[in-house]
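Field reference: "sequence" (input) and "structure" (output). Example, Fatty acid desaturase:
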Amino acid sequence: MSSNDSTIGSALDRDTVQSASKLLIAAIAIVGVLAVVTLLPGIDRLVPFAPVTFAAVATAVVALAVAGILLYAAPKFALLTRLALGGRGVDAETDAPPSRIAENAGGMAYWLVVFGAVLVAYRGLAGAAIPLLNDAAWAYDAVFLFVALVPVVFLVARLTVTVDPLAEAVADRVAGDGVDDADDAGEAREAAATDDRDDA
Protein backbone atom coordinates (compact mmCIF):
# COMPACT_ATOMS: atom_id res chain seq x y z
CA MET A 1 0.00 0.00 0.00
CA SER A 2 1.47 3.37 -1.01
CA SER A 3 1.61 6.35 1.33
CA ASN A 4 -1.13 8.00 -0.76
CA ASP A 5 -3.41 4.97 -0.25
CA SER A 6 -2.61 5.01 3.47
CA THR A 7 -3.49 8.72 3.69
CA ILE A 8 -6.77 8.17 1.84
CA GLY A 9 -7.56 5.18 4.09
CA SER A 10 -6.91 7.10 7.30
CA ALA A 11 -8.95 10.07 6.05
CA LEU A 12 -11.83 7.75 5.15
CA ASP A 13 -11.64 6.16 8.58
CA ARG A 14 -11.71 9.55 10.33
CA ASP A 15 -14.49 10.93 8.13
CA THR A 16 -16.58 7.79 8.61
CA VAL A 17 -16.09 7.82 12.38
CA GLN A 18 -16.92 11.54 12.56
CA SER A 19 -20.03 11.15 10.40
CA ALA A 20 -21.31 8.12 12.32
CA SER A 21 -20.62 9.84 15.65
CA LYS A 22 -22.47 12.96 14.51
CA LEU A 23 -25.52 10.89 13.57
CA LEU A 24 -25.47 9.00 16.86
CA ILE A 25 -25.12 12.23 18.86
CA ALA A 26 -27.98 13.77 16.87
CA ALA A 27 -30.22 10.79 17.68
CA ILE A 28 -29.38 11.05 21.39
CA ALA A 29 -30.00 14.81 21.32
CA ILE A 30 -33.42 14.31 19.71
CA VAL A 31 -34.36 11.81 22.41
CA GLY A 32 -33.19 14.31 25.04
CA VAL A 33 -35.35 17.04 23.50
CA LEU A 34 -38.33 14.65 23.60
CA ALA A 35 -37.71 14.05 27.30
CA VAL A 36 -37.84 17.81 27.89
CA VAL A 37 -40.94 18.23 25.71
CA THR A 38 -42.83 15.57 27.68
CA LEU A 39 -42.44 17.77 30.78
CA LEU A 40 -44.33 20.69 29.20
CA PRO A 41 -47.67 21.57 30.85
CA GLY A 42 -50.66 20.15 29.01
CA ILE A 43 -48.64 17.76 26.90
CA ASP A 44 -50.69 14.85 28.24
CA ARG A 45 -53.94 16.34 26.94
CA LEU A 46 -55.77 14.78 24.03
CA VAL A 47 -55.36 16.27 20.58
CA PRO A 48 -58.70 17.82 19.54
CA PHE A 49 -60.94 15.38 17.65
CA ALA A 50 -58.45 12.51 18.17
CA PRO A 51 -57.99 9.84 20.84
CA VAL A 52 -54.24 10.51 21.18
CA THR A 53 -52.28 12.87 23.39
CA PHE A 54 -49.88 15.57 22.30
CA ALA A 55 -47.10 13.56 24.00
CA ALA A 56 -47.91 10.52 21.85
CA VAL A 57 -47.75 12.64 18.70
CA ALA A 58 -44.43 14.18 19.78
CA THR A 59 -43.07 10.72 20.58
CA ALA A 60 -44.16 9.43 17.17
CA VAL A 61 -42.44 12.32 15.37
CA VAL A 62 -39.23 11.83 17.36
CA ALA A 63 -39.34 8.06 16.80
CA LEU A 64 -39.61 8.59 13.05
CA ALA A 65 -36.69 11.05 13.16
CA VAL A 66 -34.50 8.65 15.17
CA ALA A 67 -35.45 5.70 12.96
CA GLY A 68 -34.55 7.78 9.90
CA ILE A 69 -31.19 8.71 11.41
CA LEU A 70 -30.48 5.05 12.20
CA LEU A 71 -31.38 3.96 8.67
CA TYR A 72 -29.15 6.68 7.24
CA ALA A 73 -26.30 5.70 9.59
CA ALA A 74 -26.55 1.93 9.00
CA PRO A 75 -24.08 1.88 6.05
CA LYS A 76 -21.60 3.97 8.06
CA PHE A 77 -21.73 1.55 11.00
CA ALA A 78 -21.26 -1.34 8.57
CA LEU A 79 -18.17 0.35 7.12
CA LEU A 80 -16.77 1.08 10.58
CA THR A 81 -17.25 -2.57 11.56
CA ARG A 82 -15.41 -3.74 8.44
CA LEU A 83 -12.57 -1.30 9.07
CA ALA A 84 -12.34 -2.26 12.75
CA LEU A 85 -11.92 -5.91 11.77
CA GLY A 86 -9.22 -5.06 9.26
CA GLY A 87 -11.23 -5.65 6.13
CA ARG A 88 -11.39 -3.06 3.36
CA GLY A 89 -13.96 -4.90 1.31
CA VAL A 90 -13.55 -8.18 -0.53
CA ASP A 91 -9.99 -8.78 -1.74
CA ALA A 92 -10.01 -9.12 -5.53
CA GLU A 93 -7.07 -11.54 -5.69
CA THR A 94 -7.75 -13.84 -2.76
CA ASP A 95 -10.94 -14.32 -0.81
CA ALA A 96 -9.11 -14.77 2.49
CA PRO A 97 -11.16 -15.69 5.56
CA PRO A 98 -10.37 -12.46 7.48
CA SER A 99 -11.78 -10.29 4.67
CA ARG A 100 -14.89 -12.47 4.42
CA ILE A 101 -15.34 -12.27 8.19
CA ALA A 102 -14.99 -8.48 8.12
CA GLU A 103 -17.41 -8.19 5.20
CA ASN A 104 -20.03 -10.39 6.89
CA ALA A 105 -19.59 -8.59 10.22
CA GLY A 106 -20.20 -5.31 8.42
CA GLY A 107 -23.38 -6.77 6.94
CA MET A 108 -24.51 -7.94 10.37
CA ALA A 109 -23.86 -4.48 11.84
CA TYR A 110 -25.92 -2.95 9.02
CA TRP A 111 -28.91 -5.22 9.58
CA LEU A 112 -28.73 -4.85 13.38
CA VAL A 113 -28.97 -1.07 13.01
CA VAL A 114 -31.88 -1.45 10.58
CA PHE A 115 -33.58 -3.80 13.05
CA GLY A 116 -33.03 -1.20 15.79
CA ALA A 117 -34.63 1.46 13.58
CA VAL A 118 -37.69 -0.75 13.08
CA LEU A 119 -38.00 -1.32 16.84
CA VAL A 120 -37.67 2.43 17.54
CA ALA A 121 -40.40 3.18 15.03
CA TYR A 122 -42.63 0.41 16.43
CA ARG A 123 -42.33 1.59 20.03
CA GLY A 124 -42.53 5.28 19.20
CA LEU A 125 -45.54 5.12 16.89
CA ALA A 126 -47.57 2.78 19.12
CA GLY A 127 -48.93 5.53 21.37
CA ALA A 128 -50.34 7.47 18.42
CA ALA A 129 -51.30 4.64 16.05
CA ILE A 130 -52.97 2.06 18.30
CA PRO A 131 -55.67 4.41 19.71
CA LEU A 132 -56.55 5.44 16.14
CA LEU A 133 -56.84 1.82 14.97
CA ASN A 134 -59.25 0.77 17.76
CA ASP A 135 -60.28 -2.84 17.03
CA ALA A 136 -57.73 -3.19 14.22
CA ALA A 137 -54.75 -2.66 16.54
CA TRP A 138 -53.58 -6.18 15.66
CA ALA A 139 -52.80 -4.87 12.15
CA TYR A 140 -50.21 -2.50 13.62
CA ASP A 141 -48.36 -5.40 15.25
CA ALA A 142 -48.70 -7.54 12.10
CA VAL A 143 -47.25 -4.86 9.82
CA PHE A 144 -44.24 -4.26 12.07
CA LEU A 145 -43.75 -8.00 12.51
CA PHE A 146 -43.37 -8.45 8.76
CA VAL A 147 -41.16 -5.37 8.45
CA ALA A 148 -38.93 -6.57 11.32
CA LEU A 149 -38.59 -10.02 9.76
CA VAL A 150 -36.68 -8.55 6.79
CA PRO A 151 -33.56 -7.47 8.74
CA VAL A 152 -33.78 -10.60 10.90
CA VAL A 153 -33.71 -12.85 7.80
CA PHE A 154 -30.71 -10.99 6.36
CA LEU A 155 -28.97 -11.06 9.74
CA VAL A 156 -29.43 -14.83 10.01
CA ALA A 157 -28.16 -15.22 6.43
CA ARG A 158 -25.02 -13.23 7.24
CA LEU A 159 -24.48 -15.26 10.41
CA THR A 160 -24.83 -18.48 8.44
CA VAL A 161 -22.23 -17.56 5.83
CA THR A 162 -19.83 -16.35 8.53
CA VAL A 163 -19.59 -19.74 10.24
CA ASP A 164 -17.17 -21.35 7.74
CA PRO A 165 -14.67 -18.47 7.38
CA LEU A 166 -14.72 -17.90 11.13
CA ALA A 167 -14.07 -21.60 11.75
CA GLU A 168 -11.20 -21.47 9.23
CA ALA A 169 -9.70 -18.44 10.98
CA VAL A 170 -9.94 -20.16 14.38
CA ALA A 171 -8.42 -23.37 12.98
CA ASP A 172 -5.58 -21.43 11.36
CA ARG A 173 -4.91 -19.59 14.60
CA VAL A 174 -5.05 -22.66 16.88
CA ALA A 175 -3.85 -25.54 14.71
CA GLY A 176 -1.49 -23.39 12.66
CA ASP A 177 0.68 -22.71 15.70
CA GLY A 178 0.62 -26.39 16.60
CA VAL A 179 1.72 -27.43 13.09
CA ASP A 180 4.57 -24.91 13.13
CA ASP A 181 5.71 -26.21 16.53
CA ALA A 182 5.55 -29.79 15.27
CA ASP A 183 7.55 -28.85 12.16
CA ASP A 184 10.16 -27.10 14.31
CA ALA A 185 10.41 -30.14 16.58
CA GLY A 186 10.74 -32.47 13.56
CA GLU A 187 13.48 -30.29 12.05
CA ALA A 188 15.32 -30.28 15.39
CA ARG A 189 15.14 -34.12 15.54
CA GLU A 190 16.43 -34.41 11.96
CA ALA A 191 19.29 -32.02 12.71
CA ALA A 192 20.19 -34.01 15.84
CA ALA A 193 20.09 -37.28 13.87
CA THR A 194 22.33 -35.78 11.17
CA ASP A 195 24.80 -34.58 13.82
CA ASP A 196 24.81 -38.08 15.37
CA ARG A 197 25.55 -39.67 11.97
CA ASP A 198 28.32 -37.15 11.30
CA ASP A 199 29.89 -37.92 14.70
CA ALA A 200 29.73 -41.64 14.00
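Residues 1-5, 89-97 have pLDDT under 50 and may be disordered.
The chain has four helices and no strands.
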